[in-house]
Design a protein that fits this description.
About 30% of the residues lie in helices and about 20% in strands. The protein is α/β, with parallel strands linked by helices and about 375 residues long.
Length: about 375
């Protein structure tokens, strides 16, 4: 959406703020994506801004900074601000963190009306920003575009409410639902265009997670080929600490971190060798010498990881679906048929008894990427 000179309704102003906020996805986490739009009493656009990167100025400050640059006459600027309304997707912060409080910046600017999309449930805000504005005589309204804002910031809200990151599941499969042939060969099911799309997706993630079998069989790098806003931690769920010391993951540990999630029964000598090679070891023991996936995800959440991507294999994806941890799916279907009763399918685990129990994708999109079909949607 390009910036209009004038909006036809308050809702249209907030929708534009949501669009601006989305531009920060992948760069602002673990902070929320926030957009801000300043309009006059006739809904003419005065300025706008969004939170562009973690640690940088917030949306309100970026908008106000831009406004000062646009309107050099201080007295005219104050006249405009006194009659303007600031639309912001999330309640302005009221605490000193990496940046000063946005609520104080809004008050100092002389803005008298603020329209907030949703309240910030963070413990250090939780209505405090709105209260501070109201105490200063600012008129505050809430409740525009709530559904879209919550959808946009679902990973941030989930981490805040549950302590768990937003889990993306990705796989590439043949037309008959296989992620490898009966002999275990999987390169390459999807085409180059799909693989390029996956690298863009990886660049938005805080972590990429694979199972030990996939790490051993494919010897993947799990790095981001195209420059992205983030360098994800490469995580291997490896109960026995079996990751080879000469694997690409271990040999490139200086380029991107590697975290190995092991069980309590993992051999101490293997753990020590991997640690000495620079691998971060997390003991996340479950039952039967297996890694407890929820414990792993909780630790990633504790490390402020907002979005994580599970790339397989079938056993790990099955455990993620069995545990109801998956929030969003990215599936690439290639126009190929592998066949074979013993060929691997993307989601193992226990599975469901009835189709009626199956989770339904919502908001799904279907796109042709090269020769492949890309299906993307959310489960929650």
């Amino acid at each position: 959406m390009s910036a209009p000179e004038k909006f036809d309704s308050p809702n249209a102003v907030m929708q534009y703020a949501v669009e601006l906020a989305s531009r920060g996805l992948g760069r602002v986490e673990p902070n929320p994506a926030v957009g801000a739009v300043l309009v006059d009493e006739h809904l003419n656009l005065l300025t706008s801004g969004y939170h562009e990167r973690f640690g940088g100025p917030h949306a309100e400050v970026n908008a106000l900074t831009d406004f000062v640059a646009r309107v050099e006459d201080a007295s005219f600027r104050q006249e405009l601000l006194a009659n303007a309304t600031l639309y912001v997707t999330l309640e302005p912060c009221c605490h000193h963190g990496k940046t000063p409080p946005c609520s104080e910046a809004v008050i100092a600017a002389g803005i008298r009306k603020v329209q907030v999309g949703i309240r910030d449930p963070s413990p250090h805000v939780a209505g405090g920003g709105i209260q501070q504005l109201q105490n200063a005589g600012v008129q505050v309204s809430t409740g525009l575009a709530e559904e879209q804002i919550r959808e946009l910031n679902a990973p941030f809200l989930k981490l805040l409410e549950s302590g768990l990151p937003w889990v993306h599941a990705k796989w590439a499969m043949t037309l008959d639902g296989k992620i490898a042939t009966r002999t275990g060969v999987s390169k390459w099911i999807s085409g180059e265009a799909s693989r390029q799309r996956v690298h863009l997706l990886r660049g938005r993630m805080d972590a990429i997670i694979v199972g030990a079998g996939t790490a051993r069989a494919d010897d993947p790098l799990l790095t981001v080929r195209v420059p992205g806003p983030r360098t994800p931690v490469r995580v291997v769920v490896d109960s026995g600490a079996s990751l080879p010391l000469d694997s690409q993951l271990v040999r490139t540990v200086d380029e991107a971190p590697v975290l190995l999630a092991v069980s309590e029964d993992a051999p101490a000598e293997r753990i020590e060798k991997l640690r000495n090679a620079g691998v971060d070891i997390l003991v996340a023991g479950g039952t039967e010498s297996r890694v407890d996936l929820k414990k792993l995800l909780a630790e990633l959440g504790r490390r402020s990881m907002t979005n994580v991507l599970i790339e397989g294999g079938g056993e790990l994806l099955g455990a993620a679906f069995d545990g109801h941890f998956v929030d969003e799916t990215h599936v690439f279907v290639a126009p190929k048929i592998a066949g074979g009763a013993d060929a691997v399918t993307p989601v193992g685990g226990v599975g469901l008894e009835l189709i009626s129990e199956a989770g339904q994708l919502r908001g799904q999109t279907v796109e042709l990427v090269g020769d492949d079909v890309y299906i993307h949607g959310r489960l929650h």
